[in-house]
Design goal:
Elements: H1 4-7, H2 11-23, H3 29-43, H4 46-58, H5 63-68, H6 80-93, H7 104-113, H8 116-138
């Protein structure tokens, strides 16, 4: 199937506008790339993992850090702020895995490093990533293709 965001009139424009708003909040681009990649790994979205790695590399991200995202807790390559964002991304992506989907300690760690607008941006970014993951996995968008 053609990617649904290119089939429904105005859908791509709306999602793109949300992404642009998030990117204008001051959350470092590297953080956005890392949380996108981690959520996409969890959701098994090959399209988004492939696209995310390519986008991150274009923005200057290193192979070392990109390879480490899946095991970020055990790796020394991430700042405390990046770790807080990655933890938030994982909790938001795995909502059904526990009764307290986003525990207070995860939220408080993120709030320690990001102001309210940036924290809101991270929430929207992870939600948008999960949206893309679900659309792409459901419609079997192949990694390496960009149909929209």
């Amino acid at each position: 199937m053609t990617n649904p965001v290119s089939v429904v009139p105005g859908a791509l424009k709306a999602v793109y506008a949300l992404s642009q708003s998030v990117q204008a909040t001051g959350v470092p681009g590297a953080v956005l790339e890392l949380v996108h990649l981690r959520a996409s790994q969890i959701n098994g979205c090959g399209f988004c993992v492939d696209y995310g790695v390519k986008t991150a590399k274009k923005a200057g991200e290193t192979d070392e850090r990109l390879h480490a995202v899946a095991a970020w807790r055990e790796m020394p390559y991430f700042t405390d702020a990046e770790r807080a964002a990655l933890a938030l991304s994982e909790s938001m992506t795995r909502l059904a895995d526990r009764a307290d989907a986003v525990p207070d300690d995860v939220w408080e760690a993120a709030a320690k490093h990001y102001d309210e607008q940036q924290l809101a941006a991270l929430v929207l970014w992870v939600a948008t990533t999960n949206f893309y993951n679900r659309v792409n996995v459901t419609t079997r968008q192949p990694a390496g293709s960009q149909t929209w």
